[in-house]
């Protein structure tokens, strides 16, 4: 019973991971101004959720149209776990070994500018903005610790979404 779950979940997770890697490469190498684009972030979350739902639907079809909450969530989880892990591992390699320090500075400046603009839109005081600028000078968003923290944070977010999706797509088996 678990073999179809793992097979479908890991296959879709591999495809998701490859898409996220291509997406990250494009943004980090060719279009750094998109690095802090909110709509692109929403699009990435939507793609992750869509792949999770696709896994659930494929698993449900493979199991004869009936799927429990555990089976639905497991299929979703395997997909997002592998896709997120592949993407995070790639980002770790990219940040530590591939990107030049100049490119990292450009990306960091894009993140700082986005944060400042967001604070201004939310009517933050100049004192708060100056304090955030000082903190941003010491922050290294390209460290292994930050990549791992992002992986865990986004995996937990996606798991919460996965719980809701699994509740929607599950059905009770009748004997």
List keywords for this structure.
175 residues; 82% helix
Structure description:
The chain has 175 residues and is an all-alpha fold. It folds into two domains: 2-97 and 144-169, no CATH class; 100-141, no CATH class. 82% of the residues lie in helices and 0% in strands. It contains six helices and no strands. It has helices spanning 2-30, 38-62, 69-98, 101-121, 126-138, 144-169. It is elongated. The mean pLDDT is 90.
**Main sheet specs:** none
What percentage of the residues does DSSP assign to strands (E)? under 5%
Shape annotation = elongated
Q: Determine the structural class based on helices, strands and strand pairing.
A: mainly alpha
Q: What low-confidence regions span 5 or more consecutive residues with pLDDT below 50? A: none
Span between termini: 17 Å
Order of secondary-structure elements: HHHHHH
- Please give the domain count: 2
Q: What does the radius of gyration come to?
A: 19 Å
- The count of DSSP E runs of length 2 or more, i.e. the number of strands, is 0
